[in-house]
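Minutes, project check-in

Agenda point 3 was the complex the collaborators sent over. CS summarized: two entities, 1066 residues total, and the question is how they sit relative to each other. Sequences were read into the notes so everyone works from the same version.
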Amino acid sequence: MASRPGVLHVPRGRERRVVAAVSEIVLHMDYVLMLAVGALVGYGLWIVKTVTRDDIPGDENFFFTRQALAVGLGVVAMLALMWVSPEALRRLRYVGFALVVVLLGVVLVTEAVRGSRRWIDLGFYQLQPSELGKVVAIVMLAAVLADRARTGIGWRAIGSALGVIGIPAVLIFIQPDFGTSLVYVAALVGALIFAGTPWKYFAWLGSVTLVLAVAVLWVLPANDIQVLKPYQVDRLVGFIDPSSDPSDTTYNVTQSITAVGAGGLHGRGEAGATQTNLNYLPEHQTDFIFSSLAEQRGFLGAAILLLLYAVVLWRGIKVIAIAPSLYQAILAGSIVVVFLFQIVVNVGMTIGIAPVVGITLPFVSYGGSSMLTMLALMGLLQAIHVRGRLRLER
Amino acid sequence: MAAIVLFAILFFRLWALQVISGDDYLADARNNQIRTFREDAPRGAILDRNGDVLVTNTPGTVLKFWPNSISKEQRDDVIQRLSVLLDLREKDIRRRVDAIGTDLLTPVTIKTAVRDAKVAYINEHLTDFPGVFVDDTELRRYPEGTLAAHLLGYVGEVSEAELKGLDPKEYRGGDEIGKSGVEFSFDRYLRGVPAIGQVRVDAFGRAQSAPTIIQEAEPGNSVRLTLDADLQRAAEAALENGVRRAASGLVRPSDQENVSWAAGGGAVVVMQANTGAILAMATYPTYNPGVFVGRVSQDRLDEAGLGDPDVQAELNYPSINRAMQALYPPGSVFKPVTALAAMNELSRTGERPILRPGDINQCVPKREFDNQVFRNWDPEMNRPMTLREALAASCDTIFYDIGYQFYSLPGGRGSPLQEWARRLGFGEFSGIDVGPESDGLLPTPEWKRKTSILPKGAFRGWSSGDSVQLAIGQGYMLATPLQVTRLYAMLANGGELPTPYMVEQVEKSVGSAEQPVVLRRFAPAPAQDIGLTPESVQAVRIGLFDATHDANGTGYRVFSRFPVPVAGKTGTAEKFVSLPKGYLSITNKPVAQNFDQAWWCGYAPAVDATVSKQVLAEISRGREPIAICAFVENGGFGGESAAPIAYDVLSAYFGLDLSSEDIQIGTAGSSD
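CS then shared the predicted structure for the full assembly.
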């Protein structure tokens, strides 16, 4: 047992084992990462509080209190995942995967909210399976690729990985939630890179994707087969020239850029942020919260957030480097790629350099499932860090 | 590596947006919340010559929509909800919304005069109606109902086509603009200058601050017309009465006994003889301009006969101002033109002696020129007449002779009959300041050659018959009642052709107690001397006086005992008319045949030019001399259906309490 990589060496005796395990975690976790995440969570909560205070008349803390609750839940999830061995998760992967697929199926029969089916109403909580599914999908993906990697990554391995990601991604795509399904694809690409997939496969996959994109955007619509919803096509095409029609699909982007730009160096403050307060900026507590931050706190406030993200990414890459097994390295790699992808696409869309797709800003966008998922992923990173450090010590 | 590059891009872009061009975006964000709005100034009133109000304003509500402040999906939702709430077609709303394009400053007017309950509903559900707001407005009000509807005109939202021809500084999409009549021609005085204000709003268009007015509204100025509301009312009543009487068969139809009720329209024009000021201009049928107030509904237009072509035909086209827009053969009321042309053109060069006053010619039942027979209206008439008598009795054959003499002139002389008619205002726009008017048709040999639809090889030229018919105002000749009235005003004032006008002055709207402040007076164009010899004018005046005072005169029975001396001419002109569906003969067939168009044109007081001013004032009961034309479409004999209308209007003008109902018009001898 002691020789198994990544498994904590625990002395006999239940209490002693717990104390020992906790002390090993405490001794070997990444404090820089933990501090950065803590700062992000705190900063994010403060942003939600200041940005949404005018949204619900009579309850200026409506979003803040709910978000704080989600943070509480998320911290529990993070700690749990630090405790549980990533290897143990690997064994649970089929159960988890089945659960996620079932939940994603259930979501599809719920009533649509603003044209999309994304949430399961638990009464006290709106569960968004596509967010939590990220954790499971990443674990599953890392496991599949790590298994296959022994015999070298080839078409079989890529096929399995495609299956693992494809099933949830398609289910999410038809909700419809194009943005979140893209995150799954990003995880796949990240996992393939860290599994050591030869570059020629990427070339192949890239070509196939290109052909598919052309087909979906031009060839099939020309033959009356619509894969993307018209608004999705509009957003992708409108991204190329947002000023072509200020009132239509790119209205959000135009308002967002105006908000960000108006923030200037120091920001307009809470009361002065008219784009946010007067509702010109749509979805300013969720997908476009970065614009609100940039409007209220200016370049300095936005830069602080981006720097905190950079710290998390830097530490995340270090975790990949010390991961005790290929499986855990792929796992950590996918987490870092997902994290990077969400930040770049979300911030990018608010400042007009990425298409508008519904992707949340980690630790900042209002939404319990998103917060829970991100904290869980950080828990996984910490777990890998702890196991990696332990292995290096031996 | 990739992460560093991506982050660098984000930072660079943020820096560019926030620090480098931050000020521009800040301005954008500020403008985002500032909504500039224009509030139409209250439109000026339209007054009659005595200051009586013909058109004014009444407060109302208007529902407007700022489509460009919200996203497309929201806009579609709002349009759908508005369509349901206001019972408007979604397509119609969308058309108006699309019309303003991406203009952020102009709201779309969805509906005016919205009911209170619906206004309250929208105010309570503002979040369901982002961009929609309810505003106060002023709506046009017509206290006199249908009175002078065609002349006053109406206002409506400016169309895109109209905007193209207007100064963009003064007119904008969504503005109200005069569409016809005085409202159209004098729009720039009536409309005033709109207020410009600003208000802070949120993304739903809800005001976040009290509006600040940047530019105060300047209320529109009032326009004072030459019309006399009382006389206009009398003229419209007399006309309606007269048309009804003609239609009911009380008046003997000339030669179509079964379709006398085809009389369905008419016109009256009253003009000051010296100045050309229009005192009354009536047309029948008419409509209530109230149908154009607010958001115009197609149903209401159809009902009023202003929309659906079938209903228009059934109601005999109420939108046409028959007094100056419609064209009719003038018939015998045109004879003074022929007489004047003959005396000024032919007599001077000594062609024929009969054309001088006092010369005698035989009036006969029929005349034949170039194998064509032309009959007199009265087949019994066979006696020698002077020109004076020929005018009074309206002898056709003597005028046929004149027409034939004009035809027989050597080629180098041109078409002098038409030239004189043109100088007298026929075939030309009168130049009246409020439209629309028609210029009529004065047929010439050139015109006939150009417009003939006969096949090549057939004779397309001017024939003797054309000249003969023109001499009695028939054939191709067409004129508006306004043109004919002008001719009689010229005869009344002794030879000067006035330019008709309807707007006296623009004045500042002030409290009722104060004297109006005149901002601009429109000096009427002075009446033109058209070079007629005084003797020729005098000869025609005497003929027209006899027409109403000699026992053989066609207007004798109506006007001989009128307390103020009246001179005037009857006219009964044939016109080929296809009556609209619904007008069937007693044999149940559609009617398409010649109908008699009834005219009476004249002037009062008819006194000798040598009479002193004092005597004249006594005779005319202190009133200015006027010319008047009454016309009834398909009305039968002018002396029987048109003359009584003129009688009633003259009675009203001179303050007499007389009614044409009380006179014995009879059926014999006095009609034409």
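Noted in discussion: The first strand of chain A starts at residue 120 and ends at 121.
Follow-up: revisit at the next meeting once the mutant set is ready.
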